[in-house]
Amino acid sequence: MRRAIFIPLSIALAACGAAAFAAGIVGTGHDFSSEAWSDGRICLPCHASHNAQTDDDGASMVLWNHVMTDETFTMYSGFAIERTDRDQDEQPGGPSKLCLSCHDGATAVDAFGGGPDSASVFAETSLGTDLRDDHPIGVQYPPDGFVGFKPRANLPPVKLVAWGGKTDRVECTSCHEPHSDDFGMFLRMDNTGSALCLQCHDK
Questions:
Q1: Pairing state between β 161-163 and 166-170
Q2: Model confidence, pTM
Q3: Is residue 37 within 8 Å of residue 118, measured between CB atoms?
Q4: Is cis: bond before 45, omega within 30 of 0?
Q5: Is residue 140 classed exposed, middle or buried when 0-12, 13-18 and 19+ CB atoms within 10 A define those classes?
Q6: Residue 54 pLDDT
Q7: Per residue in 98-124, pLDDT tens?
Q8: What local confidence, expressed as pLDDT, does residue 195 receive?
Q9: Is the separation of the CB atoms in 150 and 201 below 8 Å?
């Protein structure tokens, strides 16, 4: 009896969580429900409840439904400190690659669910494939006490990411929340006076 109650409750909680995320993107730049190719569905262009794509290790990626970018990116390498946690030529992975699957300026926005896609891309918000003029991604946040960086306890709402056996990673989703645009540019907090930047950087 206890098990029979638990399963529907779990489904209900998952549905509530999905509904909350969906409500957060209504009317934002991530809301494609008015596009003919979305079939009026908000979550579908990015997420699928079944047959989700997996990463290179075969692990599930947040029920991912969009085509993954196959572009080769030029990564930022001018670190103030030596980064031994990744090779400078390593390509984006984890959550950042999901973001770049629409924001690489090459992959079609409507390329999802295994269906045919168009040439429609995010031209206005494209990062392109040269990421050297953007904030570093795919790097590990420095240990507490490292000069120039705030301790981890100071970071929220900035989020360090764990994926693929790696922890405390700085990825696109560290500063951006793709399901909410309350602060503009899908930022996790108001960046007036560089407040978001100063959550991490001790300047």
A1: antiparallel
A2: 0.80
A3: yes
A4: no
A5: middle
A6: 64
A7: 999 999 998 888 888 887 777 677 777
A8: 97
A9: yes
Mean pLDDT of 31-35: 92
CA–CA separation, 93 and 89 (whole Å):
12
CA 107 to CA 127: how far, in whole Å? 12
Mean of pLDDT values over 144-154:
92
Integer Cα distance of 170 and 161 in angstroms: 6
Q: Do residues 45 and 66 touch, judged by C-beta distance below 8 A? A: yes
Output phi, psi for 141, to 5 deg.
-65, 140
